[in-house]
Amino acid sequence: MESVQATKQRFGIIGNDKALNRAVEKAIQVAPTDISVLVTGESGVGKESIPKIVHSLSHRKHGKYIAVNCGAIPEGTIDSELFGHEKGAFTGATQTRNGYFEEADGGTIFLDEVGELPLTTQVRLLRVLENGEFIKVGSSKVQKTNVRIVAATNVNMFEAIKKEKFREDLYYRLSTVEIHLPPLRDRGEDIHLLFRKFASDFALKYKMPSIRLSDDAVLILQKYRWSGNIRQLRNIAEQISVLEQTRAIDANALRSYLPNLGDNLPAVVNQKKNEGDFSNEREILYKVLFDMKSDLNDLKKLTLELMKNDDSDQVQNENESLIQKIYGNDEEQEQYQEELEEQMEVLHIPENYENNTPTPTSTTEDKYSFAEEIEEEETLSLQDKEIELIKKSLERHNGKRKAAAEELGISERTLYRKIKQYNL
Ligand SMILES: Nc1ncnc2c1ncn2[C@@H]1O[C@H](COP(=O)(O)OP(=O)(O)O)[C@@H](O)[C@H]1O
Ligand SMILES: [Mg+2]
């Protein structure tokens, strides 16, 4: 069996992190079998090399390897792309066409962003996995194919199953073996190792000496969140290589290239990120704050309701103490407000947002009045922000949806839907 080191070298995988090595080792171990593999991990962690390893070290290595990005194919054509169609199956189907599952017979198919597959396509895929059977769109003839499937996802599949966006039976079929790639932030010394590798690559490419990081810059590199993982690290190494005059990069110089430095809300941001639509961490924080606020508003309404319905002294007292619990005492309120302001400052949230933020007050009247008025306003400004982000990204990429979607951290299909929805 090929060694982990040799495989990493062959596929250009840099790093010595334990979890990374384990992932490569697992890929080597399952390769000779026909077992389905699900590769999981955040965007940019290097999921794409795993199916290549699996294919190259399998008995299918002389067969075809086809990589399909399920998130990039419009819902209307995905069945036809994967399974083919008969002539006349739909308008424009002037000829019979073979799908990837027919083309890859005897080889391997990599289904990237598999969580994006429409439910109807999931049914077809399940059938292929169960008995190798599929039917072209517009046909009634059952065909056979012998394909090994490796899938990848950066979304939480259990969430998707809970929301009924992904079939549970298909998930278990796909993930007979799961290979998880760790996020860059958890890979310790690998971070600097990768940076040096990219720095030397770009030095070669742009024909200048390689940039070097000072010790304090290395520390920053290691503490940063790297929400875009290795893809982001490489972009930043390239930017610095090209834009900096001097080749010795200190902490200050490095800092100016790292967005959202000082973001210390990893848990919340991380969870929201998986939901997909807000790539920029600041945007996510807006959303989190607003979600929190609307929860609070609900609570307030409920409390008010309770108070209206019963005015006996005892209940009144209980309500007062409930309110105390929800809002805390004056001191706690002040502290909460300060923390909120601090976080907003760290994230450079503009002042007017701050003004919209309800300050918990101690008079009972004030507590209920602001809720409805500002709710709509917030949704609108959030939407504006999203539209603006999408527009800017599209401009930056000359209208190329694929690149824009990648930058925004959403699927091409989601972007397409938003463009339609907002009439962009
Ligand atoms: N361990 C690694 N060593 C070197 N380059 C890597 C490594 N992992 C990922 N990359 C590079 O980072 C980029 C993102 O990897 P990719 O496989 O596309 O990520 P994902 O599919 O998980 O979003 C690619 O350009 C890839 O070559
Ligand atoms: Mg990818």
From TrEMBL:
GO terms for biological process: regulation of DNA-templated transcription. It holds the Pfam family HTH_8. GO terms for molecular function: ATP binding; sequence-specific DNA binding. It comes from the Bacteria. PANTHER family: SIGMA L-DEPENDENT TRANSCRIPTIONAL REGULATOR YQIR-RELATED, TRANSCRIPTIONAL REGULATORY PROTEIN. InterPro entries: AAA+_ATPase (IPR003593), AAA_lid_NorR (IPR058031), Homeodomain-like_sf (IPR009057), HTH_Fis (IPR002197), P-loop_NTPase (IPR027417), Sigma_54_int (IPR002078), Sigma_54_int_dom_ATP-bd_1 (IPR025662), Sigma_54_int_dom_ATP-bd_2 (IPR025943). Residues 13-242 form the Sigma-54 factor interaction domain. SMART domains: AAA. This is Regulatory protein, Fis family. Keywords: ATP-binding, Nucleotide-binding, Transcription, Transcription regulation.
